[in-house]
Amino acid sequence: MHVVDMSAANRKGLSLFALIMIGLGSIFGSGWLFGAGQAAQVAGPAALVAWVIGAVFIGMIAMTYAEVGAAYPLPGAMARFGSISHGPVLGFVTGWAVWIATASLIPIEAIAGTQYMSSWSFGWARGLVADGSLTGTGMVTALLLTVALWLACYWSVELLARANNLLTLVKFAIPVLAVGALIASGFHTDNFTAHGGFAPNGWSAVLTAVTASGVVFAFNGFQAVVNLGGNAKNPGRAIPLALVGALSLGLVIYLALQIAFLGAVPPERLAEAGGWNGINFASPFADLAKLLMLHWVVTMLQFGAFISPNGANIGNVASAAYLAQNLADTGFFPKKIAEVHPRYGVARPAMWLNLGFSVLLLLTVGHSWEALASVVSAAMVVSYLMGPIAVGVFRQTKPDLPRPFRLPAASVLCPVTFAFAACALYWSKWPNTGKVAVLTLISVPIAAVVLRRRGGTSLRRQFAPAWWMVAFLLWLSLLSALGSAEFGGHGVIPGGLDITLVAVSAVGFYFWAVRAGVQAHRAGLPGPDPVLGAPAAGPVPGQRRPEPVGTVAS
């Protein structure tokens, strides 16, 4: 699970078990350390419903990527589908979004480890967090953890990759033991109905918890299966099975963790806090175990707070470097970014780029896991948008494409999945939606500058297949700003109507996006297909054939 020469990796081939371990190892990063506590604070006992909704949503997204990922078993595949389906501009915009979302995981895992260090009994450790945010010392500690993990991958990737299966099994065992210990310590069933009932903050809070409380963040590890599944012995079979296996096991453990957390909080502490809104632990499970005098559980969780985030970060560093390499291959990042070290087989320039971005996030918005997770989760949802759209485009433009896995009822499931993704982005609340839209759309002027310098086909023609994405992000930001106060908006659009508008308009954007992809293929904009070789269709008669800017490397 590392950034190496993929020709060598393909010759070896990952087993199905190894691919499931990769997915499970990425899913069990810092999400389990904080997700249950944060979701309980936002949604109360109804956080259980948020985990099911999140798993269903991610499962739908993952199955669309299973079809295109098995058809195009390419390293860093999630950054390449936009180029293959719509051409260079949308390829860069979506590749940028995937890269931002994945590279952001590197610092957030270091923040997670730092926040759990604050539960140590040492005086200096208690000074790492104050009022739920990292102090100056905490920021320095998180920065040191980020650099240390980065250096480990920089010099010793092979050793870390071999240790991944063992790390995953350890990460799997720690939450299972924590669940058993918390339930055995005393399980308070009244916690699920007292203090406002099962959903004390309403069902809108449940929907917000899906994105803003780290539920989507927790399941995001499925991307590692898609990005690295091209190295499996039989990608067509391995990718969908690994996705189902990793997500199913992940859901079972996350539900168990949530149930244990909800039932183990002492009723008197819940009453003192005025309900679930007041339960705000810097290190949720470790602080709860301290309350219950489970000292061995505290020690185990403190150990797990190092193993889980850092183990997951092996995959994050690998995936982020692949994605940066792909953006360099398409011509929008400097070619030097894609260079692989001849001795170590590591894409060191790409790793340097990701380290710089990680440090920038730490110094700007990384004052706590919760703050960064809400923005990163919204960015992840943007990165998911291409899955259902790529299925819709390829079904029309590439009927001869080998599909080891075919999504059933794709004509119905793809637009529904896209609408679900739009709703999840809306649930992340204003102003997070606006922040992520701006962060994604920064790529548009960069693409214009690069393409203008390269010359060739007019910018108007090359941008034509990408305008739906620009319009979608701006429209969703507007709805979010004007929407109900429950989702952070100004209340101009009443509750209920806002989500209806998001879902219905998203279906319209889906069909616009698919039509734009079909037209891009007729114009020859995507260039040679990595699997089929030639473009799906030649240029429109009388139209100049585009330059190979942004063509996905085979």
From TrEMBL:
Domain of life of the source: Bacteria
Chain intervals with Low complexity compositional bias: 532-542
Keyword Transmembrane applies: yes
Cited Pfam families: AA_permease_2
Subcellular location: Membrane
Protein name stated in the entry: Amino acid transporter
Record field: transmembrane: 12-34, 46-68, 89-112, 132-154, 166-185, 205-226, 238-265, 285-307, 351-369, 375-395, 407-427, 433-451, 463-485, 491-512
Membrane topology value: Multi-pass membrane protein
Sequence segments annotated as region (Disordered): 532-554
InterPro entries reported for this sequence: AA/rel_permease1 (IPR002293), AA_Transporter_AGT (IPR052962)
Keyword field: Membrane, Transmembrane, Transmembrane helix
